[in-house]
Amino acid sequence: MPTSTRRTHYWVTFAVLAVSVASYTLMQSLTVPVLSEIEAEFDTNQNTVTWVLTAYLLSASVFTPIMGRLGDAYGKQRMLVVSLAALALGSLAAALAPTIGLLILARVIQGVGGGVLPLAFGIIRDEFPIEKIGGAVSIVSSLLAVGFGAGIVLAGPLTSTLGFRWLFWLPFIVTAVAAVVAVLVVPESPVRTPGRIAVLPAVLLSGWLIALLLGLSQAPDWGWGSPKVIGLLVLAVVLLAAWIRVELVVEVPLIDMKMMRLPGVWTTNLVALLLGVGMYASFGFIPQFNQTPSESGYGFGSSITESGMILLPSAIMTFLTGLVAAPIARRIGPKTVVVIGSVLGAVGMFQLAAFHDEKWQVALANGITGTGIGLAFACLAGLIVAAVTPQQTGVASGMNANIRTIGGSIGTAVMASIVTAHVLPSGFPKEIGYTAGFLVLGGALLAAAIAGLVIPSVSEKKIAKKLDQERNDRDLSIMGA
Predict the structure, then answer these.
(1) Does the keyword Transmembrane apply (predicted)?
(2) pTM metric for this prediction
(3) Separation of first and last alpha carbons in the chain
(4) Do 131 and 15 share a structural domain?
(5) pLDDT averaged over 10-residue windows placed end to end, the chain, 481 residues
(6) What angle do CA 147, 149, 151 make, to 5 degrees?
(7) Do 169 and 149 reside in the same domain of the chain?
(8) 475 burial via Cβ count (<10 Å: 0-12, 13-18, 19+)
(9) Dihedral, CA of residue 377, residue 135, residue 315 and residue 366, to nearest 10
C-alpha cells in the first residue's frame, strides 16, 4: 500500500532515533572520567578497570555492522528494538553489578546497542521525505560527536551528586522507555535484503576486530614490541584476509566487498577512520591534561566537573554545526563541507598544541575542533547513504561507524604511547608529550581533509533525485506485491 497510509509521522520516528543514538553515544564516554572512582569502588587495579571501556568498545565494534546487516535482512525497526533492549538490559546490569567482573560483562551487553547507529540511518532513508533526509542524517551524525563530548561533561556532575551508578541508571531509564516507544511508533521498513546470513563471515569479522582493537588498546601498557601485541596484530591481519576471502565466495555476504570498493564508500570510510583518530583520542586525553596539577608546569588541576566544562564548547559547536550542515551542503556540496570541517578540526588541534597555558585557550581550541568535526561528521553518513542501495544502508553505515571506532582506537593507542613516553618524577607525563600528541592528532585531521578531496563529487540535488527514484521503485514494488 502507499507509504502515506501506513507510516508514523517522520518527526515522531526521528525523536526516537535521536534519543537512541544519543543514549548509545553517551555510554561510550560517561565512564571515561570516573574510572579511578570505579577502581576504588570495586577495590581493583588500573589494568582491570580499563576493561570497563575496552569491553564496550570490542562489543560495539563487533555488533554494529552485524546488527546493521540483520536490520537490512529482517527489519530495521525490529533490530532497533533489540539494540535498545540490549542497551537497557546492560545498563541495568551495570547499575546493579556487585563486582567488577559483572560490570565488565554488563558493558559487553551494552555494546550490542551499537546497532542503533546503522539502523537509525536506514530508517531515516526509508521513512523520511526526500527533502528531509539530509538534515535528519546530519543531526543524527552530529550526535555521535556531541554525545561523546557530552558524556565527559556530564560524568562529573552526575557522579558527584548521585554517585557513579547513576551513570547507568539514567541510560537504563531512557533506553527502556525508548525501546517501548520504538515498538509502538517506529514503522517497520519494507526494504529487505533477502537470503540467509552466513555464520562464518560473522565469526571472522568478530575475530579480526577483537584481535585488532585489543592489540591497539593494550599496546601502550604491554609495549608495541611485546609478543602479545605483535601476535594480536598479526592474527588480525590473517583473520581479515580470511574474512575478505570468505565474503567474496559466500552466497549472501555479511559485508558486500563490491560495495566496500565503491569510490563513494571507501573514500568516505578513509575519512571516517582519520576523523576517528583525531576526535576520540582528543576527548580521551584533554581531560587528563586539564586535571594535571599546575605544579607539573602545565595543566590546571581541574576537577572532573571543571575539566568537563572546558570541553563544553566542543559539544555545543558540534551540535550546532549538525543543525546547519545540511543547508550548507545543499549550497556547496557535502564533499566540500567534509573537507572544510576536517581543516577546521586540524586548525583547532594545532592551536591546542601551540597554546594551552590558559583554560580559555583550551576551550577555544576545543570549540574550533568541535565545529570542524561536527561539520564533517554530519555529512559523512549522508555520503555513505547516497553511495549504496537501500538494501545496503544498514551494513554500509554500520561499517562506517565501525571504522570511526577503529580510528579512535588507533588514535588513542598512539596518543597514549606519545604522552607516556616521558614522565616527570611526580609520575605525570611531561608537557612535551601532550604537545606532540596534539600535533599528531591535528595531522590526522589534516590528512582527513586531503582524503576528503578524493571523495566523488555529488550534489544534494543528485542525492535527492536518486533517493526519490529509489522510493518510487520501492512503493511500486510494494503495491505490486
Answers:
(1) yes
(2) 0.82
(3) 9
(4) yes
(5) 52 89 86 83 82 84 85 88 95 95 94 89 84 82 80 86 90 93 86 71 89 86 90 96 92 84 92 90 85 90 86 87 86 92 96 95 95 90 82 79 84 86 87 94 96 83 64 56 50
(6) 65
(7) yes
(8) middle
(9) 50
Q: Which residue, chain included where needed, has cell 562489543?
A: 59
CB burial string 290-311: b at 16+ within 10 A, e below: bbbeeeeebbbebebbebbbbb
Claim to verify: residue 357 and residue 418 sit in the same structural domain: yes
Helix (H) / strand (E) element for 378: namely helix 359-387
Contacts of 211 (CB under 8 A, 6+ apart): 232, 233, 235, 236, 239
CB atoms within 10 A of CB 201: 23
Q: Which of 230, 251, 272 is the last residue of a domain?
A: 251
What is the number of structural domains in the chain?
2
- Picking from 251, 268, 286, the residue at the C-terminal end of a domain is 251
How far out from the chain centre does Cα 357 lie?
A: 30
Q: Are residues 390 and 265 in the same domain?
A: yes
CA torsion, points 339, 144, 407, 332, in degrees to nearest 10? Answer: -10
401 and 260 in a common domain: yes
Q: Which domain holds residue 31?
A: 3-197+252-480
Work out the angle at residue 280's Cα, subtended by the Cα atoms of residues 218 and 94, and round it to the nearest 5 degrees. 70
Q: At 170, which amino acid appears?
A: L
Question: How many whole angstroms separate alpha carbon 459 and alpha carbon 450?
Answer: 19
Determine the residue type at 416: A
Round to whole Å and give the CA distance between 126 and 56.
29
| 160 and 261 housed in the same domain | yes
Residues across the chain: 481
- What CATH number is attached to the domain comprising 35? 1.20.1250.20
Phi, psi of 423 (to 5 degrees): -120, 140
Residues 237 and 313 in one domain: no
Radius of gyration of the chain (CA): 21
The pLDDT tens digits for 211-225 are 988 888 888 888 889
d(CA 89, CA 176): 8
